[in-house]
Write a structure and sequence with these properties.
With 209 residues, the chain is α/β, with parallel strands linked by helices. It contains eleven helices and five strands. Helix 10 links the parallel strand 4 and strand 5.
Length: 209
């Protein structure tokens, strides 16, 4: 019996495949800098940002140097807020609320999710919200999932994890968790609802299909 559903954030609860895509697109629109240049400027720091080893504030001077121009770091907050929500997925989560526990497991930057927790009201629907940069472990290892399971007080067999990257499903599967790959390009929420109902026996009252 599934007692908890854990959602990835970017590419599942949002319309962009990654948070970096959201951030880079906004910065590009505001500064006129090309997406490729922004990706390359941030690339050396992305892994450490996701593991909480460094912060945006610490790398910002180097990023600006790599880009050859100064960028107001305040634009980052606006970039975070530009994250496009997947409204049908949120409707699904709301429909599940009360029938099972809901949480988020995400590889993400600490300052981004900390801001979005307030801006998007994430804590009203999801508990726990487990962020790689907070726990120092990403979704390629068991630790981040064990952290979520311990908080939820459920066994791996009682938990279901939904992610838009097949590579992020190996670690939870090895623990015995149930998993679903969600293709963010197809964004077929009705098919996901069918899987939750028919494969996992979850009631999804009122979910838009």
């Amino acid at each position: 019996m599934i007692k908890a559903v854990l959602f990835d954030y970017d590419g599942v609860l949002t319309m962009d495949k990654t948070g970096s895509l959201t951030t880079h697109r906004y910065l590009s629109e505001q500064t006129g800098i090309g997406l490729d240049a922004l990706r390359e400027a941030f690339r050396p720091y992305n892994h450490d940002l996701n593991l909480g080893r460094i912060s945006h504030a610490e790398i910002w001077p180097d990023v600006c140097k790599r880009l050859g121009r100064d960028i107001n770091p305040a634009l980052l907050v606006n970039a975070f807020e530009s994250t496009p929500l997947n409204k049908r997925m949120w409707q699904l989560a709301l429909a599940l609320k009360g029938h099972c526990k809901l949480g988020i497991v995400t590889d993400n930057k600490q300052d981004r999710i900390a801001h979005l927790r307030t801006y998007q009201g994430l804590d009203a629907l999801f508990d726990p919200i487990v962020v790689s940069s907070d726990v120092g472990s990403d979704k390629t290892s068991a630790a981040i999932f064990l952290h979520a399971l311990n908080h939820l007080r459920v066994t791996p067999q009682e938990a279901l994890f939904i992610d838009n990257s097949p590579g992020n499903l190996f670690a939870p599967q090895a623990l015995g968790m149930n998993t679903v790959f969600f293709d963010d390009e197809e964004n077929d929420v009705p098919a996901l609802i069918d899987a939750l109902k028919n494969k996992f026996g979850l009631p999804v009252p009122g979910a838009a299909s």
